[in-house]
UniProtKB/TrEMBL annotation:
Location of the protein in the cell: Cytoplasm
Residues the record marks as active site: D69
Catalytic reactions on record: a ribonucleoside 5'-triphosphate + H2O = a ribonucleoside 5'-phosphate + diphosphate + H(+); a 2'-deoxyribonucleoside 5'-triphosphate + H2O = a 2'-deoxyribonucleoside 5'-phosphate + diphosphate + H(+)
Record's keyword terms, sorted: Cytoplasm, Hydrolase, Nucleotide metabolism
Known EC number: 3.6.1.9
GO cellular component: cytoplasm
Enzyme class: hydrolase
Organism: Campylobacter concisus
The protein's name: Nucleoside triphosphate pyrophosphatase
Biological role: Nucleoside triphosphate pyrophosphatase. May have a dual role in cell division arrest and in preventing the incorporation of modified nucleotides into cellular nucleic acids.
């Protein structure tokens, strides 16, 4: 059994769907203090390391801990979680008709520590404006890196994909399952 140290329902669903036995411990983490003027793969790794440090200060003695975080980048511009609808629209407009990558970092603490950063890149066709406005209005973008939901809104606009879908949803299951 592993412990998912995350409040992400998407990560929990990925583990459940993969048949991985886990329990989830939610905790709050403010990633706004993490330096963004670095490459996306460094940024996401720094976030997950900081999450691990914070969690371990508050929860000593636990084993088989899984930490993860994701960021979306268009070029080297990191798109965090949108604070409001205006910011979500701006992030999605950057993705529209463009190539964007999702970087996911995970740390698994078991008998030894596994650290992994994975990347999935998508080429999107131009987003339909009415569809975009409905997505924004339905608030599905909230709490999502880059306001992206690859399993919902963004999915219908994918022209090409390089990498694992689970990475884009917040956890590289292929790597995790190989390790477990």
């Amino acid at each position: 059994m592993i412990i998912l140290a995350s409040s992400s329902p998407t990560r929990a669903n990925l583990l459940k769907d993969a048949g991985i036995n886990f329990t989830q411990i939610s905790f709050q983490f403010d990633e706004s203090k993490i330096e963004k003027n670095v490459k996306p793969e460094i940024y996401v790794q720094n976030v997950v390391k900081a999450k691990k440090e914070q969690f371990l200060k508050e929860n000593m003695g636990l084993k088989n801990l899984l930490f993860a975080d994701s960021c979306v980048a268009c070029g080297d511009k990191i798109l965090g979680k949108a604070k409001d609808e205006k910011e979500a629209i701006a992030m999605l407009n950057l993705q529209s008709g463009n190539e964007c990558s999702v970087y996911t970092a995970m740390i698994f603490l078991g008998e030894f520590e596994l650290i992994n950063v994975s990347k999935t890149t998508y080429k999107f066709k131009k987003f339909d404006e009415h569809d975009l406005n409905e997505y924004i209005k339905n608030n599905e973008w909230q709490g999502k890196a880059g306001a992206m939901t690859i399993e919902n809104f963004n999915k219908k606009y994918i022209i090409s994909q390089h990498g694992e879908t689970s990475t884009a949803m917040g956890l590289n299951l292929k790597i995790l399952k190989a390790f477990l």
